[in-house]
Amino acid sequence: GAAGGPSSSGTRWDPPTGNGDGPTVVAAAVSNAAFEGDPPPYSPPDPKSVHLLYPPFPAGFSQQAPVLYQPGRGPGPFPPQGIPPSPLPYTTVRIPHPDRSGPSTGPSPAGCGQRLPKDYMVESVLVTVFCCLLTGVVALLYSHETRAALGRGDVAQANAASKKAQSLVLFSLLFGLFASISWVVYVLVALYL
Hints:
InterPro entries: CD225/Dispanin, CD225/Dispanin_fam. It comes from Haliaeetus albicilla (White-tailed sea-eagle). Keywords: Membrane, Transmembrane, Transmembrane helix. It is found in: Membrane. The protein has a domain at 119-192. The protein is elongated and about 125 Å long. It is mainly alpha-helical. The longest helix is centred in the C-terminal third of the chain and has 38 residues, at 155-192. The chain has 4 helices and no strands. The chain has helices at 50-53, 121-130, 133-152, 155-192.
């Protein structure tokens, strides 16, 4: 080959030799025989060595060892047949729907014994339709804000929005009653006097 180019052997590149003025540096490539060729075929772990792959469960936690599945065609039934259901490794909390009243079946996520605020959505719709449109619409907005705050777990914001929705519903109801009674009195006075 040309000076400074690859040699004709094709396997190694020999650096050009100097004229002897300085030290000669020789670079050699080392190859690892373990990484040459195709990788070994996949073999699933031995079921007898499961205890080596996965740590044991904490004391007091009754759970079967993990089940290793052979690769196959498509997903099967869940849970797999022949495996009895076991307790979950976490506790479940059931949050009651804000519109449905009833006893709570689990601890409240807001804290110990703290009740979730009411959103007043139904009341807001009723006072919007029957009593006062303007304050009813604002009460609807605060009711929606209460639901959104409960959905993201912000109980303090939900309490504040719930109190505003409650006061607007009461104001709309009282204003609607006052307007209705005033209209009836005006009609009676106009007809009989």
